[in-house]
Every structure is written in structure tokens, then in C-alpha cells.
User: Fold these one by one.
Assistant:
Number 1:
Amino acid sequence: MTGKTSKPGGTSAPGTTSKTDTPVNDTSTPMVKAEGVHKSYGAVEVLKGIDLEVKTGEVFCLIGPSGSGKSTFLRCINHLEKINAGRLYVDGELVGYRQKGDKLYELKDSEVALKRRDIGMVFQRFNLFPHMTALENVIEAPVQVRGVGKAEAKERARQLLERVGLADKAGNYPSQLSGGQQQRVAIARALAMDPKLMLFDEPTSALDPELVGDVLDVMRDLAESGMTMVVVTHEMGFAREVGDSLVFMDGGVVVESGNPRDVLTDPQHERTKAFLSKVL
Amino acid sequence: MTVDIDKTDGRGGTPPAGAEAIKAIPVRHYGRYVSAVVAIALLAAIVYAFSQGKINWGAIPDYLFDDRVLGGLGKTLLITVLSMLIGIVGGILLAVMRLSKNPVTSSIAWFYIWFFRGTPVLVQLVVWFNLGLVFEYINLGPVYRDEWSDFMTPFLTALLGLGLNEAAYMAEICRAGLLAVDEGQTEAAHALGMSHAKTLRRIVVPQAMRVIVPPTGNEVINMLKTTSLVSVVQYSELFRVAQDIGQTSGAPAEMLFLAAVWYLLLTSVFSVGQYYLERYYARGSTRQLPPTPWQKVRANMLSLGRPRGAAA
């Protein structure tokens, strides 16, 4: 599980002020830590106090009915959504804020962007850039954000496309690819930034059943390489087989959590039982 | 009879072995022939009426390439291009300001658009020309100092009047384009760590262009014709030149037709340019680029005489 080439956080940490949040910054720091995370849209409370921990190198699965808040929580992790209460840490650093004493300061957009570099995200609807070829999609962020040379980025992008089984599709535009192929390009695009954490937001929900397998294979391969992954999914088979931890969410709270094999085969809560009896 | 019912899919291309390709007599569209005849007859009647009018048509070719006309044409083009440039740059800027989270910039953009869209261009042009009533001198410290009437030449009046007005319209076009881009694109770019500015420049604007280009082409063509208004501020573009020649040569109506010929010619050229520009920005959004008119003609030529659907 710790076979990952872990970055000690020194290179990616934009400031030293974050040290005050959590003094420990070794491998025992959880990759994601949520403490009483709340989120509401107007009067609707979507997250009602989420507490959880994602360890470095593990595959963490979030399951639950639609509207349970799992996607929202995922989007909070890279600050696409702002939380209203509680604390959320990624690699020991507060998400979206800086703490000085007991005061919180909002981070500037540029500081938020800096942190997002290290967190890859894969969307349900792929969100590939339609005006760029597969290869251009993959090199975009390394070239524009990290300032990597074009030739070097292309070389690496070809390797990544080969890794997801799409070496021959480098020159194709997204509209010329199937859903499964698009999603695999999207994974390659996220990996091109060498993230320390990958977020998957229902990556197979928009795919034809026969295309799901290819995407799951890529994710399985990624998990084996030691990538820390938080996966919102309806693929119970994937969760059971690849997942290291699993959380069942409903109505904005964590109902049950534990080892996926235990939770899926022997759920303790009535709500979990009811949900699993419908999806399994 | 019943044995002959074959499932050829209705597609004549490559029928499966044993099936007979359909050779049916196509539906006759008699209405098309009738309407074509009526339209041609009407056109001929109009042309005849004009040819019999008291217009000296011979004067038009005499002056078509007159130096003064060509000079006016050049100025018309110059004003069109420059004021569209001001319009597009200003429009993008205003659209971004309008959509910005900053309430100050978005209010400024709103006010600008409200004012310049709410008053006629002709009035704006004349106001620019007469702004010397308010600002007697233009004084940029040691760099430049002059009386307003000397500073505000007809050229500058035309440029500012048309350009600033156009910016307000372009702003609305650009805003519609920016809003048409799926929000997931911005999210994906942000998730990759791209800044707001980079997301806009690299991801959103290129996709917005597909929506922005067609109405902008329209605006260019509109602008070309609107330049005729600047004749009121003494700028000697095509329309003004045509009027001047008309008065001295004793063929005023003829010269207006001459101007119309040139305007029509230029707008036609611009339309062709617009087609190729749209085609360029359509890349990635369709599986195959639409054919150029030339490719279409060639495809039609090749498919002539062959069964339908056989064209490659």
C-alpha cells in the first residue's frame, strides 16, 4: 500500500504556514481527512457532517443512492465546491483556506489552482476538451500549468495513452471516440499532471455496459500501481475487488464504513441492507 | 410477387448478393418548375423596368474604377476593418468584465453596453464630432496638446463612433458565446490546476468562437454598410465620394447605383471568408468537417449519372 513513490509534500506545498495546521507531515498523514464537513446549497443541506479518512495509497470507495451527497463531497476535496462548516484536509493541508491562529483566511484563486495541480479528477461526463485531439488534451495541463516542454509532454502523453490502451487514437478528436475511450483519455489527462490523489466521480455511469470494463481495467491497473484513489461508484464488483475501504452515504451522512468485502456481504445498518439489496 | 420482397434497407449502395438494386422513378416536383418560371419572369420584369427608367447606365462603368471611387472604397474598407477590430477586442473585454465576479467591473460593462446600445450610431457620430463644446482642448501633458476640433479628425470620429458602438453589440455576442460553453469544461480545466485566465483563453474562448463567429460575420457585413453613415462627419468614404461625383458629373442616381454595386461585391467577398472561418472553428465539434463549396461541386459532378448514394 505504501509502495507508491510518495512525495514528502515538500515540493508541492506552496507555503510553510500550513505546518501549523498539522505538525505531522510524514507518511502517516492521511491523504484526505474530513472532520464534520457540512455543505448546503441555499437552504438545502447536502452534507451534514462527514467524518472520514483516506489513507495514502488506498482505494477508497464512496457508494450510496443518488442525492446522498457523495459527488458533492468528492468535489469539495479539490475545492470545486466550498464547504460551509467543518474541516477538510488533503495531505495535511487545509482545503481552500489557510489557518492562522484561530482565524481562517480564504485562499486566492491562484493558490487554490496550485493545490489542484496535484489532485486529478475524472468526471462522469468525461469533460474532454472537444476542440483538441486526445494527445492535445493530455499535454494541455502539463504544458500550460507546469510549463513542461511540448516535446517532452508529448512523449509522456503517448506513454499514458498507451497505458490506457489508446496509443492509436492520439490524433482523434473526442467526438470521434466512444464513451469508454473518451473516459480513458480523461484518465490519461489527469495522470499527466502526476497527481498524488485521483478523484473519480462516477466514471462509468455514462457508459454503455460493454464499455465499462475497459475503464475499470485502467482503474484497477492504476490502483495496483499504488495511486491513492477516491472513487464514487455504483460498480459494487469493482469496490469489492479493488477497494481498500468503503463508505456508504445516505442523506448527507456516512451511514456505514469499513472493509468493502465486509460491508457489501454483511451490512450492519438497515439502510445499507435496503440499498444493497436493490443494487446487488 | 411476395418472393421479391427483399430487405435491402432502402440503401441502394451495396445490395447484398442476390438482391436487386432498386431502380424507382423519383417523385416529380412540379411545383419547383412552376415557381422557378414565376421567379424568373418577375426578375425579368423588374430588370426591364429599370432599363427603361431615366438612368444613364453607361455612366456606371465609366466611373466604376475611377481613382476617387477606389480611394473611397479603400477608406470604407479601412474604417470597416479598424472599427470591427475595436469592436471585437472591446466586445471580448466587455463580455469578460460583464461575466466577472467583480461587481465593479460587471457594473461598468453593463453601463457601457446600456449607453452605447441605447443611442443611435448616427447620433453618437455627430456627438463625437461636436465634443469640442465640452472639451475645448485635448491635453495629455507634455506629450500632446491640441484643440479638440483639430484632434478629432473625420477619420478619428468615424473610427471611435463606429468602433465603440460596435463593442457594445459584440459584447453581447461574445457573452452569449461564453455562456454557451458547457460548465464541465471550466470545471475540468480548474481541476487540472489552470487559472481563470488560462481556462478562458485556452478552453472557453476557442469553444465559444463557434457560437461567436457567425453573428460576428453578420456584424462585419453590417459594419461595411454602416460606414456609409460617416459621410455626415465629412469622411470621404465610398458613399460620400459617390455623392460628390454624382453632384459634379450630373449623374447623382447613377453614382448611388455604383456605390451599391461595390457594397454588394464586398459583402459577397466577406461572406465567403466567413464560411471558411466557421468551418475552421467547427473542428472537433463535428465528426467530419463540412465540405468546402468547391468540394461540394466536385462531389456533385462525380455523382452525376451515377445512382444516388454511390458518391464516395
Note: Chain B touches chain A at residues 182, 184-185, 187-196, 198, 202-203, 206-207, 283-287 (CB under 8 Å).
Number 2:
Amino acid sequence: MSTTSLSSTQDAAGPPASVLRSDYDLPIVARRHPWRWVGVGVVLVLLAMFVNGLVTNPGWDWPTFFQFFTTKTIFSALWVTVQLTIYGTVLGFALGAVIATMRLSSSPFLQVVAWGYIWAFRSIPLIVQLLFWFNIAYLYQELSLGIPFGPEFVHFSTNNLFGPLGAAVLGLALHQAAYAAEIIRGGIISVDAGQTEAAAALGIPKVRQFFRIVLPQAMRSILPNGANEVISLFKGTSIVSVMAIPELFYQVQVIYGRNSRVVPLLMVATVWYIVLTTLLSIAQRYVERYFNRGTTR
Amino acid sequence: MIDIRGVHKSFGELEVLKGIDLVVEAGTVTVILGPSGSGKSTLLRSINHLEKVDRGLIRIDGELIGYRRRGDKLYELREREILHQRSQVGFVFQNFNLFGHLTALQNVVEAPVSAQRRKRSEVETLARELLERVGVGDKADVYPRQLSGGQQQRVAIARALALRPKVLLFDEPTSALDPELVGEVLDVIKELARDGSTMVVVTHEIGFAREVADTVVFMDDGRIVESGPPHEVLDNPAQERTRAFISKVL
């Protein structure tokens, strides 16, 4: 009641219709956002202060930075880091895919085994697990193939079988697999059940249902999280320095241990981590674009 | 063609099918009507073994679906055997369930190649013909989301036809469509009926049932209340329950 009377008074108070322009060509004034410009200003000032500090503060010691940034030692250390990332990712996600399928299978046995794996490897801090693998020879001096509790056929010395690098890859991959499994499982259950049902109704073989129908669509939600994991693994390889493996962070520590130029050498590592993470992010963009096909109008 | 005997099915406590007997002759169209929750969709899905029945037998062309009889016991078939049986039955879903990451053509080509191991080049030619036949020939390379609901459902019908199925099952094929798109999908199904395909259609479209069905089956509360030619069941129902339903729907 009150609204109608209000609008009628407004109508009465407004100018006569003839004064207004035709309804079709009234100009539109976009809303203004003054606070955005204030925000931009504040950020620009802070950024300028930071850059100024980078240039003028002698503590950054840029000559030392450039002296080491592209040396052979750093490059070979970087290569070790990249290798750890590649092996950790490939093995971790391969094993993770198996565990995810086990958790989603209809077999209660496989479900429990997969759940137990994820439980165990998410519970143990990576650094603790790595130190265990590094010291595995203390527990088992040799490994052998044979019949359980029966005769043995082949013997390996544990230390020969995995060197420090092998132990590191193993630790990273096993750790990564637990997280990868959950990410892959999350992606798979995000695919509408109707897709599997349609595939089943068409008689498409089970394995093909998974790889041709479900997985490509699951990739859409696996990828952002997966890329997160790869990037965090890439930086996480620095934890391997506790095992004296000459990856990027360990090598940088060795160098600043000798010349005590801590900050510029940490910057060497930082910049390389940033550069490679940037490359990974760009790669992620393109891979995601591929798997997004068919999702936009 | 389809022979359903004494089929029972429960979901937990809830008994959805309480003993269904139904015979569908080759080359005929059977339309199943009934209120929601009456078990129509469950019955249709069990013909394809998408639902396992608790009791009773379903045969297509004399072949037991989902089980193998040895002595007087039924042994559940292996996944692979069930999938093979399904590839002989076309199923069209209410929500189309087209594969979103595949184009219309790829949707149609997928199953004949991977489930029936037919040659891709031949299947592609057939697929284009089928898409043409259901009226979306120009949409072969388009992804499902770029199609209207009616177009998607017609692609889904082409996908089911590509398997050269013995039987076609439709689970409320027009229920998810805007009213003005219902006609184009029903026209395709009518066309198939004229060509003599054996079909079972669950639907709410009484007009369609009257025009196309050879047999109308009315289901309520997990049972078949009555069945017969459309002019009997729709115009002159013997059962009070059927009459009440039809008067409400019309």
C-alpha cells in the first residue's frame, strides 16, 4: 500500500514527460570507483619503496649474486633439483593414480589398503621419512629376492641399491603419492555419475571407460591441485638438503658456508625457484586449456 | 523379444518392483506410464542390467541378462560379459549424458569402436548418416554444451542407434527438455517406430503413447496395474487407479 502511494507522489513531483528525452537515447553514466585508485596508489608506493631497497641497500650484494647465478655448480645443482621434481612427480602421480583407483574400487580389501597407505604417508613428516630411507641400511643391510620365509635367490646390498639420490626420490615419491591419490580421487568423483552410467550402458570396456570418458573430464579439477602439488614438490626438494644431496638449496648453503655471503646466495636460489615455478605455471595454463575443451559454449 | 518374469527389486527397505511380468514383441513399441516412484525407470534400467534385480529373470532374444544359468542356480556374469550384452541394447537417458569432452560425432563413434571393435572409418560414415537422420547433421563437430537440449537428446539417440541395438530403451527422454523442444525429439522416436525398431519408452507424454504405442503399460507402486493397446488403457481403462492417473495427466 505504502509503496504505491510513494511512487505516485514521485510521479507527480517529477518533471513533465515532454521535458525528458526519449527513453531510447538516455545516456548511461557508469559507476565510479574512487577507492580502487587509492588502492592502486598505495600499492605503487609500497612497490617503489621495495624496489628502491633492492637497488640501494648494499646488503643485497648484487655483484656476488651475478657472480654465482649462472655458474656451473649452480646449474648442476639446479639439474638435480629438476630431476628430483620429475621423478617425484611421475612416480608419485603414477602410484597415486593406482591408490586412488583402489580407494574407489568396490573391493573393501583394496579400499582399506589404499586408505591405510594414505593415512600412513600423510602422518609421517616428509623430513622424518627421508631420514628413515637415508638410514635404511642401518635396519636392513641387504635385500634379497626369494620365497617369503624360504630360500633366497638374489642378494643386494641396500646401500648399493639406493644411493642417497635413490632414497630421496623414493621418499618424495611415496610422500607425493598419498597426496596425489586424494587429488586424483577428488577429480574422479567430481565427474557426474551419469557419464560412467552412459559409458556402461553403451558397453564401453571398463578400462576404456576410465581412461577415455572419466579421466579426461576429471583432469579439469585434478589439474589446478596437481599443478599446486608439482610446484610445492619442486620447492619441497630443498628439504632433501638434510641428506647432503647436492641440489640447489644444499649447494647454495655449501657456497655461503665458505664465503659467508648468505643473502646474495639465498637470492640465487630464490630467483631460480621463481623462474622455474613461473615456467610451470605457464605450462599449467596451456595444459588446462587443452582439458577444458567442450566446457565452454 | 524382451521377456520379463517375476522381477523384484528393493533399495534397502523400499521395494520398488513387486513382481513384474511383461513381454515385448519384436518390432513393437511399449510405452510405460505411471506416477513418479512407481518403478518405471527401475524396470527399464534393469532390462539393461544397470540395476541388478533381486528376483526374477529378464531375457532379450532368449538370452538371460546379467546371469548365466548352470543347473538351478544363476551365476552373475563377469563385467565384460555384461558390457557385451549392454552393447546390444540402446539406452537413452533423461539427462542425455553425452560425453562433455567429446564432439557429437565422437560421442556416436566411441562405443561401436571400443565396445564392438568395428572399424573407425566405417563407424564414422555411419555416425554422420545417423546424425543426419536425427536432424543434427550439421552439428557433428560441436561439443554437447554448444547444443540445445533437444539437439543433445537427438545426438544421444544417434549414439544409441550406432550400436545397431536389438532393442531401444528410452528413460523419460523428453522430461529434461523445454516444452518447445519436446516435439523434435518425439518426432525422431516416432520415425524409429515406423521403421520397426523394438522400443520401450518410459514417458509422461500421453499423446505420444496414444499415437505411437502398440502396448501401453500403466505402473503404480511397483506393479503393473494394466496393459493393453492404447485405445483400451488410455480411453477405456479397466482399473480405477489408471483412470484417476490419466484424468490427472490429461
Note: Confidence is low (pLDDT under 50) at residues 1-12 of chain A.
